[in-house]
Amino acid sequence: MRLPLPRPILSATLEIHSTDAVLVFLDTDEGVTGEGLCFALNGNRLNLLHDMVRSFEPLLIGLDPTMASSFYKRAWADIAFFGHTGATIAGFAGAETALWDLRGRIVDLNVSRLLGAAATAVPTYASGGLWLSSSVDELQREAADYLACGFKAIKMRVGARPVAWNIERVRAVRQVIGPDIKLMADANQSLTVSEAICLGRAMEEYDLTWFEEPIPYWDHAGEATIAAALDTPIASGETEYTSRGMFAMMQMKSADVLMPDLQRMGGPTEFIRTGHLAAAFDVKLSSHLFSEMSLSLLAAAPNAYILEHMPWFEPIYAERIELDRDGNAIVPDRPGWGFSFDLDAVRGHAA
Prior knowledge:
By secondary structure, this protein is of the alpha/beta class. It is 40% helix and 17% strand.
């Protein structure tokens, strides 16, 4: 699928023009279909991702959907030669998200209920705006628009610019939203340890809920140094792979909030394992992207903190995430993930 953004957006590390996806459908001989997806920014290597998803077909054809863990076990061993990171894991996620959706649809339960739900609504924050490509005036208008939509938490981006430049933008957003709305700042891995500590200290007076991915994700020791130096919580993990990578982060005290990405986890199984590990370490659990699917997974996690609401995939879904009066995302009672692809929209976005 080719999913162009309304306008290009600028993070601290790249300009994003589109969020292009491979949609996965698992059909059964009883007429039930499970849906999943994986994606690539700006269409980069989307064909590789497509081929990786298709490579799991021999392990899925003929599978009893109630034996989903057997697929996980065999697929995990099958990809070992290429490793449990990168495109192998992303393709794995496309297959596994469809398989979990199928399991829920077969028994007519939302995935959250399939797992044993802990909540019917999950706190959420708006993440689709407030990019570095926005001027200060645009930041303030976007923030006001999110409040009007009912959000009680929003995220903005900061980057490798002068501290004063970043602070002007943080101050402007806080002035619009007031003291009671949660505000997060994401540096998209663009800083050094010393730069992150300097900027983090300067932002502390604006009462941030967290400071996200200040440095390259693989420097867990550096993240731990920043976390120890600042009062503001550090959020990270969206770029780390599987529960094994998350376990290393927790051992090193790299983050106060973990943000597993459903694609880099390889699908729901590893996402759920990460949630259990986070609970054992008393670390808060959030999510990264894949809002329509992550919602059900967080609803089943007693230690869930907040859902990232990113609208990138909304154009191909028939339903939308709804908020309650407190700004929480309502978990749908529809089966599977609770969100289905709009096939007319899908055809319109075919790559």
